[in-house]
Amino acid sequence: MLHLILIVVLAAIVGVLAFLIYRRPISPLLTLYLVIGGVALILLPFLAYRLYALSRANYNLDRDRLALKWGLRVESIPIPDIEWIRPMSTLAEPLPLPFLSLPGSVLGTRRHADLGEVEYLASDPKSLLLVATSHKVFAISPESASVFLEDVQRALEMGSLSPVPSQSVYPSFVVSQAWDSLLARFLWLAGLFLNIGLIAWVSLMVPSLGRVSLGFLPSGLPRQPSPGLWLMLLPVVSLVFFLGGWVTGLIIYRRPDHRPMAFIVWTSSAIASFLFLLAVLFILTTPV
Over the Cα atoms of the chain, what is R_g? Predict the structure, then answer.
């Protein structure tokens, strides 16, 4: 609920600032509106991913492994590799929370003088457990710490039936894996350069524009002219669509059987960016 509220608030801020930008002439205050709106627009996908990660978060324990899943982050720990588990409150020297931590989204890494690097994959900062392995310590927050400790102890006592290798999957691993595909690289770079070029082109044109007509009426006639600054909406919307399609494609790409669908999403994003470029060209060449 907290993430949803923050997403709605940021979207409202972007909408209000867009309306204010439309109503005001070019001035220093307009630059401030653009900066604040840009920051809010950048935070939106950040919060959206954390909401997605929380909705897919899961700790899965059996007698062979402990699997920590948080969004695109997956850590599979063989049961014999677990050295110890204890509550965070037992530490003699406190361990600070990661930066930008929120209830439901305690993610990131911090370094401790005795433990070394600690990675947080947790939702509740008040009920953290530390899981130590030979290479890293993880901070997690199972719903019931006492029940979780009992289950881990039982798994250790029973022993592993079929030893499994440890596995670490990071969001960046999905990106690098997809980057190895020539088609994925072409679609990503094509969409990126189209959007960068569109933003640069419109930014150079806006100061010399008077008023432009955005869209058409049901009768087919152009709408009433708007301030030329409103043309910046098209590259902004194009970039948002492109980034949204890029992230969605990465989420789909994780499953090998769904990868053709990921390429369809990335192709659609690149085509949409090209269509926004054509839309700007059409607007600039249409007499007002």
Answer: 25
Three-class SS state of 47: helix
CA distance 86 to 149: 8
Q: Where are the domains of the chain?
A: 1-55, 61-169, 170-288
**Which structure tokens are listed for 30?**
């307009």
Q: Between the CA of residue 88 and those of 36, 69, 82, 117, 148, what are the distances in Å? A: 37, 20, 16, 14, 14
Across the chain, which has 288 residues, the per-10-residue mean pLDDT values are: 92 83 64 78 85 90 89 87 88 86 89 88 90 90 89 83 80 82 93 91 78 71 70 83 89 86 94 92 74
Helix segments in the chain, DSSP class H: 2-23, 28-55, 145-158, 171-179, 182-205, 233-253, 259-285
* 78: phi then psi, degrees, rounded to nearest 5: -60, 140
pTM above 0.85, yes or no: no
238/231 Cα distance (integer angstroms): 12
| Residue reference for tokens 């980034």 | 243
Q: What is the token pair recorded at 6?
A: 């923050």
d(CA 169, CA 136): 14
Q: Which residues pair with 66 in a beta bridge?
A: 61, 77
Q: With contact defined as beta carbons under 8 Å apart, do 187 and 269 qualify?
A: yes
- Report the C-alpha gap between 168 and 21 in whole angstroms: 46
Spatial contact of 17 and 33, defined as CB atoms under 8 Å apart = yes
